Description:
Largest sheet of chain B: 6 strands, mixed
Order of helices and strands of chain A: HHHHEEHHHHHHHHHH
Largest interface: A-B, 25 and 29 residues
Order of helices and strands of chain B: EEEHEEHEHHHHEHEHEEHH
Helix content of chain B: 25-40%
CATH topology of one domain in chain B: Rossmann fold
Number of helices of chain A: 14
Shape of chain B: globular
CATH superfamily of the largest domain in chain A: MetI-like
CATH architecture of the largest domain in chain A: Orthogonal Bundle
CATH architecture of one domain in chain B: 3-Layer(aba) Sandwich
Number of helices of chain B: 10
Number of strands of chain B: 10
Oligomer: heterodimer
Radius of gyration of chain A: 23 Å
Amino acid sequence: MEVREKLAYIIISLLASVAIISVILIFIFIARESLPIFFNPEIKKEANLRVFFFTRDWQPISLIPKYSFIPLIVGTVKVTIVAIVIAFPLSLGAALFTSEFIPGKFREIIKPVIELFSAIPSVVLGFFALMNIATWVQVLFHASSRLNAVTAGFALAFAVIPITYTICEDALNTVPRELREASIALGATKWQTAVKVVLPAASGGVFAGIMLGLARAMGETMIVLMVSGNAAQITLSFLDSVRTIPATIAAEMGEVAFGSAHYATLFFLGLLLFSITFVINYIASTLLERTQKRLRGER
Amino acid sequence: MNNKLKIKISVRNLNIYYGKFLAIKNITLDIPERSITAVIGPSGCGKSTFLRALNRMNELLPDVKTEGEVSIDGRNIYSPDVDLVKLRRNVGMVFQRPNPFPKSIFENVAFGLRIQGIRDRERIEETVELSLRRAALWDEVKDKLYKSALELSGGQQQRLCIARALAVQPQVILMDEPASALDPIATLRIEDLMRELKEEYTIVIVTHNMQQAARVSDFTAFFLTDEDRAGMLIEYGNTSDIFTMPKDPRTEGYITGRYG
């Protein structure tokens, strides 16, 4: 029996470490491909950190290639802001509604249905956005281009809502029933209990939900590739076309010359995206854990 | 029972159903003002259900049906025009496991005032201090009012929950096995506190600890389940009578430890 337990332990640890090692290897591979930016003198001339962050244009295949990240970052930030502004209130509202205000039977229906959204392939969401959302946005805001940051952000919200909703809902649900009862017994209404007791107690988890939704919005590729317009420009208006980091990588990686400055630059862009979403995910999981501990009464 | 005492809570023919299951059956009893009334009985005999009927907390669960009458100061709390918020302010509750909010000690006690929309800082501070003093906790926490309530020990947390209940100035306090999660010393402190509090409040306590009932209560109600597992009142009277000369053989059997 003891031998079998040991064997199971070893197999499980191996499987777990495969997952961790793969992530590390992916990181190392992407980093290695982007190294020429720092060490190859030819490439360094065209593509370097100064060019990435202190110039204005992304024109990687013009006669004089220009590799500024700024328009891509601006584009990514714009669609992410739109997505979060739409998705967050809806997700939190739905989470509060299902965890605090409706009886169990309905919750058992609503929760899986919202979670089912995450099973919709993003290319389908993109298609839907292309055919419908883009028209609504154009009519509603009189946008000159159908494909812009608002359209893309709106479509992204559909991808973000299931994640943010699920995590918020779980966080609200882990708040012990005793806290709700204590609040009700002091004469609080259901609404006061939800807003002043349950929500603050679950705040870490709710915040984690936003962060993970944020990471999803920043990393989502297909939807933005289809409906953001893909014009790398630095403007303030959310109704202009934008080009995001993941869409750029997806669109250009297929045709780039292996080993060129453009190639290394795309990998560096990928490294940047990877690092940002990794940090966001890390913060989110730390917050979740802290909330759980706090609710269990540990410090 | 002593007839000179004024009746605070009067329960008449109370039936409570969970769905189709009859949880407590035809309970009738009167609870006198400014005294401690203990409800004892084996697990599953409907003690907690009975207690939660007194501030209508049972209604938080789906499919609960209540029949009969519960009057506090002569007003039926189950009549349709009763304001549940006012009722629960008037009838405070302390739970089995200490359940402070994950907020500061101060904010825990101030919570009941804040949800009433009271903003006056001085008034809130006064009430918080007074409530903590009444709950015999002030001296232990006065230097760390803004620390998290979760840093307190279990016994302190339970006294904090009592302070939190006192802050909204109830007249009745319901306690659902308030010491069952505490060590013996913390338990004794809670019992001392209850004796002090009964000068001003009407206290109803559910306990499965018979010694505790015998130590602190003035009156004792003994519950037991019938053959259909419905809880019913077997005997009710002065605590000293119940424990020294019970009228019903089943009461005697329970307090002498023959079952339960």
